[in-house]
Amino acid sequence: MKSVDVLLCWLIHLAGAHTVGFSHCNKFNNRIYNFKSHTKVDPTLNDLYASQLKSMCPRNVDPRIAIDMDPTTPRAFDNAYFKNLQKGMGLFTSDQVLFMDPRSKPAVEAFASNSKTFHANFVAAITKLGRVGIKNAQNGNIRSDCSII
């Protein structure tokens, strides 16, 4: 297996962490208001979900407003994140593309259909990530905002 394939696998496993947590509206509002000139809403988004996102995050919403990343079971660490991707309910473009891309779609489908498989793979991936080592100001980049380097 090529190293790129291995990295993609770990990425898919770790993306499952989006089954819990929240995001501020300004981190995804480009998908519901200004996606492209010919379509304002990302066409990979489920229509009903896009409407719900618009109601929770209207234009010019208070930047402190945040919504759950998993709209179905936001307080449970489960495989609903992957089931949501199958329905076009990935909050971030980077989430939804995991289902749209033929290289990652089989893993999304496997995790959506089997929570034990997802949990086992997530544990292995997060354990491996934990062995990378702790970064500090001298040997890494500490971010207070993950979107800004």
Description:
With 149 residues, the chain is mainly α. The chain has a single domain, classed as Peroxidase, domain 2, CATH 1.10.420.10. Helices cover 42% and strands 4% of the residues. It is built from 6 helices and 2 strands, in the order H-E-H-E-H-H-H-H. Strands 1-2 form a two-stranded antiparallel sheet. Helix 1 crosses helix 6, helix 3 packs across helix 5 and helix 5 crosses helix 6. It is globular. It starts with a helix and ends in a 19-residue tail after the last helix. The model has no long low-confidence stretch (mean pLDDT 89).
Any descriptors?
149 residues, mainly alpha, Peroxidase, domain 2, two-stranded antiparallel ribbon, 6 helices, Haem_peroxidase, peroxidase, signal
